[in-house]
Amino acid sequence: MRTRYSIINMLFNIGGQFLTMLLSFINRMVFIRCLSAEYLGVNGLFTDVLSILNFAELGIGTAMVFSMYEPAARDDEQKLARLMNLYKWMYRAVAVSVLLFGLVLLPFLPYLIKGGEGIEHITLIYMIYVLGSASSYLLSYKNSIYQAYQKGYICAGWSMACECIKTVSQITVLLLTRNFILYLAVQQAIQFLPNIMVSRMVDKEFPYLKECHELPEREERNGILKNIGAMSMHKLSTIIVRNTDSLLMSSFIGLATVGLYSNYRLVINALNNLMGKFAVAFSGSIGNFAVMENSDRLYKIYKEMDFMFFVMSAYLTGGLMMLFNPFITLLFGGKYCFSMTTVMVIVAEFYITRMRQTNLLFREAMGLFWNDRYKAVAESIINLVASLVLVRQYGVTGIIWGTIISTLCTCAWVEPYIFLKYGVQDAWQKKLRDYFAEYLKRTLLTAAVSAAAVLWVQRFPVGNFGIFILDGLLYTAVFAGVIVLFYRRSVEYTELKRRGLEILKRRAG
Asked: What are the tens digits of pLDDT across the range 348-383?
């Protein structure tokens, strides 16, 4: 049953993300042709500002979903209802906090924007972002019960449908009016629809949630608050590391540079979301597995998933090194491209981040938030200091190097250490040594494949979408051959191949 739910979730999540990616690129192409690069910069800047304001969420969602895995596995309706009531009140407080923090930041807007003098109604634009972000917390807590029951595909389905409606509506508004404010108003109005639809479904499918008005017992609340306290540190770290880049670029370099960077971020975020959706498809099953199974079986599944995420990360890394700038050129124009040096640093940061996926997934599924809370603080400080020091001399590249340095100094080694020591426990020192040895081998292999891909595209430049697709197919075939050559005898490769063939046989039968 776990495998079945994981596959259903994966198909919905990945299918939805591919559709979202396609719509996002079409939307961005129309945006660039209808509005200036400064508006593109404002969009990227305020998106990151709102992500910073969303620190008020404190990781509540992750901690609450983890708390629901056990009662969902045992169908404890009373406990689930109490947890949902707590979740609801917490998210209402978050909505109010985001709104208040947004208003407090309003007088400081002029100091965050460099080169945006031609943007009209900047205060109104900012407030549309703030109101949209605050309202998103009013009903979204109800999605969690589907996640706990491994039915995240229901939420993904509604999100996919509304994303289509939103993008078509925004494109229509841009083509007819070229009005950025109307564009934003459509975005904020439609993005609230999935929460409304899921809320109605939850009320109908789980009527006992409305009948219970109690909160969890004090001891259970204290445990949840402890996890939220730890997650708040991780949340702060994520915000500082991921969402201050645009602020630094806007303050030190200029709003137009934020616009250029936002195109690369669009692609990177689309791929991050794709892999994130893939991971989320398994999170409910892993949470259930962690509750019901022993550590040996858990470690076996961990190894398989770590290999799977490595293959995906390495494939995307080499592909981006090879085709990132040609893609930006074909879609948006050569004037929106960074130098190859900057692109290589952006892609290197993407690879390092994606290689953390398995450890983060198992940490959240097993509730190991508390054990590495100080890692998040160290990561934030190192990132901010390094970025501020390097941005003055190296610009965009320096800011991204700050992220890479902070990740390597903290997350890259602390996260596997925490999972193996506190999650697996048995012979964790040996397993940690094996992990780092394998990580080094995988990174060298990825670097070699990426270098070969870059040399190829430099020797044979991409001039149109036909060549772009052919290069992508050639790269895919070569990469698949490399993986088979180096890993065909590994346990993880063999096991994943067996699982895949079993699924295909069941589908064929």
From this structure: 999 999 999 899 888 877 777 777 778 888 888 898
Q: For position 495, what pLDDT does the model report?
A: 87
Structure tokens, 311 = 């293959």
Residue 150 three-state SS: coil
Say which residues have a Cβ less than 8 Å from residue 462's Cβ, sequence separation at least 6.
323, 326, 329, 330, 468, 471
Token digits for 488?
């065909």
Contact indicator for 301, 347 with CB cutoff of 8 Å: no
Q: Which two tokens stand for residue 187?
A: 């975005």
Contact criterion met (CB below 8 Å) for 190 and 166? yes
Residues in the chain: 509
Report field, pTM of the whole predicted structure over 0.70? yes
Which among 113-122, 222-231, 461-470 has the top mean pLDDT?
A: 461-470
Say which amino acid occupies 500: G
Amino acid at the residue 67: S
* Residue 116 burial by Cβ neighbours in a 10 Å radius (0-12, 13-18, 19+): buried
Query: Between 429 and 57, where is the model more confident?
Result: 429
Q: How far apart are the C-alpha atoms of 472 and 248, rounded to whole Å?
A: 34
pLDDT at 115 over 60: no
Contact predicate 244/52, CB 8 Å:
yes
Whose CA is closest to 257, among 47, 29, 37? 37
Up-side HSE of residue 129: CA atoms within 13 Å toward CB? 25
Angle at 160 between CA 159 and CA 166, to 5 degrees: 85
